[in-house]
Amino acid sequence: MERRVAIVTGGTRGIGAAITEVLATDGAHVAAVYAGNHAGADALRGRLAGRGGSVSVHAGDVGDPDFCRKLVDDVLAEHGRVDHLVNNAGLLVENSALRMTDEDWDLALRVNLSGPWYLARAVLAPMVERRFGRIVNVGSVTAAMGSPVEVGYGAAKAGLLGMTRSLARAVARKGVTVNLVVPGVFETDMTNAMAPAAQEAIRAMIPLGRRGDPFELAHAVRFLLDEKAAYVTGSVVTVDGGLSMGA
User: Fold this and answer.
1) Residue 46 in domain
2) Domains held by the chain: number
3) pLDDT tens digits for range 95-152
4) pLDDT tens-digit profile of 175-188?
5) Dihedral of the alpha carbons of 163, 165, 167, 169, in degrees to the nearest 10
6) CA 167 to CA 161: how far, in whole Å?
7) DSSP per residue, the chain
8) Within the chain, what is the greatest distance between any pair of CA atoms?
9) pLDDT, tens digit, for every residue of 41-71?
10) CATH number of the domain where residue 158 is located
11) Is 180 contained in some domain?
């Protein structure tokens, strides 16, 4: 991983922060993208810099194609390459199916599906030119299990599978792999803020009987980014404690 350059969206909190930490600790430079928590982003950058990690933080909207192009151009200008792209940023837009507005639907698809496409499109040319690249998209068990209040989110995350496999086929002979990681429920600020009864209900649904540690997902992402994972493309790696198997 040493000397590799990675872009990690949603890379300064929760699962994304764990991915950033794992990659930076392994010697990669990580351009961590975040939406608006400047203090949290600066704190992560400072903490990892104190350990010798190389991290830059970039605020912006991954659903904006202009921002995505500029982000990749800036990283290329600074480092000359983009080896890894981890499309982790996501936005959970919840509303009942009957009450979902056009704006809810558009927002869910823009951030959760269009954003990964904008960034993948921007990094593909430099990756193909160097004959090396790793793209990992982060989906959700909602795509397989469904949710009555996450129709747009579930549709967008399901769309990531089609996008992942289509891109994987498009660049399979050009040194670039594209894979999908599907997380379940993890220990994050969001889940820890839930009411105790809700937390217990979720825990009871998971065959392993616990929520995941973000570093457990980061480990799966790290594997797919490795040079030795060159024969893995178009794959789906599910990291959910068995949740998607159902009861």
Assistant:
1) yes
2) 1
3) 899 999 999 999 999 999 999 999 999 999 999 999 999 999 999 999 888 888 889 9
4) 999 999 999 999 98
5) -150
6) 10
7) -TT-EEEEETTTSHHHHHHHHHHHHTT-EEEEEESS-HHHHHHHHHHHHHTT-EEEEEE--TT-HHHHHHHHHHHHHHHS---EEEE---------TTT--HHHHHHHHIIIIIHHHHHHHHHHHHHHHHT-EEEEEE--THHHH--TT-HHHHHHHHHHHHHHHHHHHHHGGGTEEEEEEEE--B--HHHHTS-HHHHHHHHHHSTTSSPBPHHHHHHHHHHHHSGGGTT--S-EEEESTTGGG--
8) 52
9) 999 999 999 999 999 999 999 999 999 999 9
10) 3.40.50.720
11) yes
Give strand pairing partners of 236.
Answer: 180
Band of the pLDDT at 246, cuts 50, 70, 90? confident
126: tokens are 């430099």
Quick check: is 100 in a domain?
yes
**Token pair recorded at residue 90:** 């996501």
Range of the domain at 24: 5-242
Output the six-digit token pair for 98: 């009957």
Both tokens assigned to 231: 């024969």
Domain contains 247: no
Least Cα distance to 8 among 142, 39, 148, 53 occurs for: 53
Tell me the catalytic residues: 153
